[in-house]
Amino acid sequence: MIDELIRYLGNWRNRETVLELLVVHARLALLPLLIGLLAALPLGWAAQRYRPLRAMLLGSANVLYTVPSLALFVILPGILGTQILDEINVVVALALYTAALLIRPVVEALDAVPGHVLAAATAMGYRPLRRFLTVELPLAVPVLAAGVRVASVSNISLVSVGALIGVGGLGQLFTQGFQASYNAPIIVGVALTLLLALVMDALLSLAKALLTPWQPRRARPTGPAQPTGPAESAEPAQPRPTGGEA
Amino acid sequence: MIFGEVFGWLTTAANWTGDGGLLQRIVEHLRYTLIAVLGAALVAIPVGLAVGHTGRGGTVIVGLANAMRALPTLGVITLLSLQLGVLRIGPVLFGLGLLAVPPILAGAYAGVQAVERDVVDAAAGVGMTSWQRLWRVEVPIATPLLLGGLRGAVLQVVATTTVAAFVGLGGLGRPLIDGQRVTDYPRVAGAALVVAALAVLLDLLLAGLQRLVVPGGLRLATRTVQRAG
Amino acid sequence: MNKALIAKLTAAVTLVALAGCSGGNPLQSSTTGENSGEIVVGSADFNENVLLAEIYAAALHGAGAKVTKKLSVGTREVIVKGLQDKSLAVVPEYTGNLLAYLDKSATQTQPDEVYNALKSKVPTGLAVLDKAQAEDSDVLVVTEQTATQNDLATIDDLSRKCGGFVLGAAGEWKQRWEAKIKQLYGCTFKSIQTTDAGGPVTVEALKSGQVQVANLFTTASAIDANKFRKLEDTKRMYPAQNVVPLIRSDALNDAQKKALNDVSKALNTDLLTQLVARVEVDKENAADVAADFLRDAGIPS
Fold first, then answer.
1. Which residue among A162, B216, C180, C265 is least packed, with the fewest CB closer than 10 Å?
2. Is a pLDDT exceeding 60 seen at residue C213?
3. Which CATH superfamily is domain A2-211 in?
4. How far is Cα A170 from Cα A161, in angstroms, rounded to an integer?
């Protein structure tokens, strides 16, 4: 198998194809991440404020997540009127998944902001929007970052499924390798997908650290946090990484 | 109008019965899902409990689980199929199992970790052995998070099992992929709806199980956050 | 406040830059076949079609076109839709199956008849160029063992046994041929198992005995490699399948059309089978094989 790999990667056309697919894959995974996050913020904010909206939005988000990605990729052209092989179908579908994934962390992060902090901000004369952007949002970053990291990995994995509808990305290495009964492209595809996910995760961790300078920098497993010192009491309670509906 | 077509497809009896009908596909789909999740649980729960209980190896295990989340299931399944034999169910079950391990592992680990130190100390103080502490104290308290992890795993696996059809196996992916190939959108949408319905049903079932199994006092205290593990 | 704001902005800009850094406007669809004379060559998801698409792409490149490839997009249904909504401009097709797809009641079977009928049935906006002599047809095959045990040489022979046999074929086979095979040969299979388009799943299903009959393609290397027996289609259920470029009429200029016609002139069945074997068996890169073919045929790439 190793010589198969060496032979595969030794061919410049293969290398070029792999690189192209990697770039497309990254683009198809990251753009929806951004769009989904931007969509989840106002949606989550609305859901947190208005009780009936909360149940409705969280409920539909859960259901959306159960729809298989392939089906969504295929149905969207009919709904959006896009071209059948357009990448935009994948982007929109993944943005929907990302938004669905991130609404709950936004709601819970906003829930977790201590009441006295909000009161203090209001007392200082902050209008709601400014309060949201400069007080609630920064405090929500740790929780959001965890959600965004999960969404990032999920998107990177889902883009591969797009290969089944002919959209670019490392998934093509899987489908074409399988058709040709050729291991090498598949191995390269799996390795690069893993690499991409790791790099994205590292970048997101870095972004989170930059955005929350009041938090300790030590890396720790994503289990519940150890209790922090009194100086950092402004930090909201660390969420549990998994859970069901309570 | 597409809703009408989908509704029409779903209500045609011929699509449900017989060879290759929806009922057969649902059974296959459930079979793949359950075996994969159970297999994953058999590995992930003991490991998660052990790591959480002893407090050792946490970083490594959690790091490994996170890396596993990044594995593309389609890639794993196609590679294993080529290696172990196409049309064998092993590769698919293994690939789906890999998908299910991280949420279950995280649930077990987080569940045990969440037990307050005071409670564990009290148990030790009363004279419980390590084993007893684990089974009589930590596991019952960990149950909500553990079941939460299981629910997350089931959800992910049910949606991803559709991929099995790409390597020639059955399941609800079959009408999904076959329909997509001939642009039979009512079939695709119908199959997708059935998958979603199945996922919701399984989730409700597990939620019910959670109510039964979790001790009453804990139910009040539990506040879980992230659904997808 | 300022430090935090700067950090936030930096992170946001970084993410946006990453998303967009892979060249060009990320929101612009990359399937614009109509922009700046760019030609999008597509292919179905089986090895030979991918190879043919590579050949067409290289030939068009040699004729001065800017070419993008969208390979393995799926079946004919998807491809025709793609041509019609301008996601694709050129695809390699097969006269007989394309005709059957466009006109279910077509009865022509001989190469020239099929081609002429096809020309008249192509939807507006699309066109077919010259056909090649090379043919790649669907073919029903059985294992050597099944053939000798049941004395099978033609599909007629098979029709005696259909009721006890399972057929392995791609998902679309059923709606294309199930009625026809019943009508022509009186054959109704015990059941039809969806495998794939002449790929590893179909081959494995036949080898392992999960199916007793399989639908492959005549140029597939798997047939010789596994000593499968082809069943002769005496009543010509599968019509002539000459390789032919299906294009969007307005997508190619004359020089580009000539390039593809030159390709068709140079392509015969034996050559095609050899080229496919290089991709399927030797695992060579299809674009490399395409380049060799064009070089040998004297067509610029």
1. B216
2. yes
3. MetI-like (1.10.3720.10)
4. 9
